[in-house]
Design goal:
- The structure holds 2 protein chains of 2 kinds.
- Chain A is an alpha+beta fold.
- Chain A has helices at 11-15, 23-33, 43-66, 99-108, 117-132, 135-141, 211-219, 241-250, and strands at 2-4, 7-8, 38-40, 69-70, 83-85, 91-93, 114-115, 146-147, 160-163, 173-177, 190-197, 200-203, 207-209, 231-232, 235-238.
- In chain A, 43% of the residues are buried.
- The mean pLDDT of chain A is 96.
- By secondary structure, chain B is mainly α.
- In chain B, strands 1-2 form a two-stranded antiparallel sheet.
- In chain B, helix 1 (8-31) packs antiparallel against helix 2 (33-40), helix 5 packs across helix 7 (98-109) and helix 8 runs parallel beside helix 10 (159-166).
- The termini of chain B are far apart.
- The chains are: A alpha+beta, B mainly alpha.
- The A-B interface holds A 73-74, 86-90, 117-118, 149-151, 153, 159-161, 163, 175, 177, 179, 181-186, 189-190, 192, 221, 223-225, 233, 235, 237 and B 80, 85-86, 88-90, 93, 118, 121-122, 125-126, 129-130, 132-134, 154-157, 159-160, 163-164, 167, 232-240, 242.
């Protein structure tokens, strides 16, 4: 159920904004049909979140199609023209480089970058915000970007992980855990995957698949003889859409 | 130089660095081979030194002249750095009993301090994860914690070591992490707080620090340890993983749980099952508060507790509120 400024949202007018079968339509439908209550200060705020979710999905597909390389932190690499590779394997925005240009470079030349799945999701989040914000605002807001799994993310982004939610919505980052992973391949301990809608997920290193296929891929990297399967955890990681909206509105 | 006993070659490594060590040992091999073999077989030598000299050893010393532990450690290191992890894991897991001791020796004397060789650090991570996950050996957790905090001080990635540490599913190991709250290094304290962030109020504890914060955490652990279970969260999943959760139901019933899955260690009786199913329908804040009260009441007066736990839930909550002055 959706409440906008204290009033229950008009289902038809909201759904009418998007074509049936689109991720935006699916996201709205889940929010509208939920037994939980979702509150927004205005329709603009709700639409901002729905569009951000779409940008997250589009950025995920762009990384997938651009064939971003999969590397562990120890083997990570980046385009040194825009980013400096840190000792811990993360990428730090070079001094004097425009943040928007550096993020765009990842999506223009993904083959020049190699990292693991959580950092790929962080790249996706920055690209999604870049698509939602005017470029100038993005450049003045995110002046110091570090791409290193979930560490050191910008506070304005407000990325947080929620547990045991009533609903999981397209654009969420879900986590497939592989409890019996071969200890010599910790990079397969789990997979961060963006919910693309239509029961598909994008996981960097695994590609676009349904949940069963992702679980199957993880299971191939278990201790030999293990009968404990990988599984989808009851968690979702999301940027703080409300905060990002307010920042855009009042900037 | 780390605490503990070291051999002469270790001391040369600390004072002259890796290249100085290799040069010294190379000359010794040429001029006095027997002395070189004696030094490399020193019972106090560390794996990190043996590893640095692996090429000199394999080129000039016959396997039978080398302490069997050291020889096997080098062979194990080669396997851990090989590119077929599936076969290696199985081979090491199913090999003779010595493998576990060899891996433990590697971890206990591996000492990666000031080491920037990524392959070597990866080797130690692999050895740690193998011991914890494949051998279910948790005796090296203090050493793994030491590696985590040392690497973190150097700005290196620690997520794989942290993952190996927590995969042990041993709530007692949280005392090791808590010990770093007393560290003089601010990076240690920050990391310890982050790893223990499932403990209420610890991350934003600006009112207390050092021993006071440590004591607060120890008290919390003492009260909650039997009811903690591993969630499987990791730094791979999010920025602030909650590695453990308290089973409020278990704490309310005073029934310890398995740290691996949160299930009671022994089956609940009929009354307990009934209580648990009603309790589980309460809101989370109420469950937390009632479980705290149950624990507190039992400590004060077990007889009063056994009367209280048989009351209807609303009566229990009312009595708890009355006794704690409205806190419940």
């Amino acid at each position: 159920m959706i409440y906008i400024a204290g009033t229950e949202a008009d289902r038809q007018s909201l759904l009418g904004r998007y074509p049936g079968g689109s991720p935006e339509y699916e996201a709205l439908q889940k929010l509208l049909d939920s037994s939980a209550t979702y509150t927004y200060s205005s329709e603009d705020e709700l639409i901002f979140e729905i569009n951000m979710r779409r940008h997250i999905i589009d950025a995920s597909l762009a990384l997938y199609r651009g064939r971003l390389n999969f590397r562990t932190f120890k083997e990570s690499f980046c385009n040194e023209e825009y980013w400096e590779r840190a000792e811990n394997g993360g990428f730090v925005l070079r001094a004097g480089v425009e943040p928007a240009a550096a993020i765009k470079d990842i999506f223009r030349t993904p083959r020049r970058y190699g990292t693991e799945c959580a950092t790929a999701i962080v790249m996706v989040y920055y690209k999604a915000v870049l698509d939602a914000y005017p470029e100038e605002l993005f450049n003045t807001t995110f002046t110091r970007i570090t791409l290193m799994n979930w560490q050191e993310m910008d506070e304005i982004m407000g990325v947080a992980t929620y547990r045991n939610l009533a609903d999981y919505i397209p654009g969420d980052c879900r986590y497939f855990r592989n409890p019996d992973v071969n200890p010599l391949t910790p990079e397969w301990q789990g997979e961060n995957a963006i919910d693309l809608g239509g029961e598909k997920y994008y996981g960097h290193g695994i590609g676009v698949n349904n949940a069963e296929m992702i679980i199957e891929a993880l299971n191939r990297h278990r201790i030999e003889g293990s009968e404990i399967s990988a599984y989808l955890m009851d968690t979702a990681t999301r940027p703080n859409f409300k905060r990002l909206y307010l920042y855009l509105k009042y900037a | 130089m780390p605490a503990g006993r070291t051999g002469l070659l270790d001391n040369i490594r600390y004072s002259n660095g890796p290249d100085g060590l290799r040069e010294y040992f190379g000359k010794m091999l040429q001029n006095n081979r027997l002395k070189a073999i004696e030094l490399i077989n020193d019972s106090d030598i560390q794996f990190s030194t043996i590893y640095l000299l692996r090429e000199e050893i394999s080129g000039s010393i016959e396997p039978e002249a080398l302490n069997p532990l050291y020889y096997k450690a080098l062979k194990t290191a080669e396997k851990l750095q090989a590119k077929n992890p599936k076969a290696v894991e199985k081979e090491l897991r199913t090999a003779d009993d010595d493998t576990r001791s060899v891996l433990k020796w590697i971890i206990k004397t591996g000492n990666p301090e000031r080491c920037s060789d990524h392959d070597y650090l990866k080797l130690l991570e692999n050895a740690a994860a193998l011991l914890v996950k494949s051998f279910r050996d948790t005796s090296v957790l203090p050493e793994i914690a030491d590696m985590i905090f040392s690497a973190n001080r150097d700005g290196k990635a620690v997520h794989d070591l942290v993952w190996a540490f927590f995969e042990a599913s041993r709530p007692e190991s949280l005392y090791i992490i808590a010990g770093y709250l007393n560290s003089p290094h601010s990076r240690d304290v920050e990391l310890a707080k982050k790893l223990l962030c499932f403990i209420p109020d610890i991350e934003n504890a600006s009112d207390v620090s050092g021993p006071a914060l440590y004591n607060r955490v120890i008290l919390w652990l003492q009260e909650n340890l039997p009811y903690l279970y591993y969630t499987g969260e990791s730094m791979h999943l999010c920025n602030s993983p909650r590695y453990y959760e308290v089973s409020y139901t278990a704490k309310y019933l005073l029934r310890p749980v398995s740290a691996e899955n949160g299930e009671p260690l022994s089956p609940l009786n009929g009354l307990e099952k009934q209580l648990a199913s009603s309790f589980d329908m309460l809101t989370e804040p109420l469950r937390r508060q009632l479980s705290d009260f149950s624990q507190m009441l039992y400590k004060r007066n077990p007889l009063q507790w056994s009367t209280w736990i048989r009351l209807p839930l609303n009566e229990q909550a009312r009595m708890a509120a009355y006794i704690t002055g409205g806190l419940v």
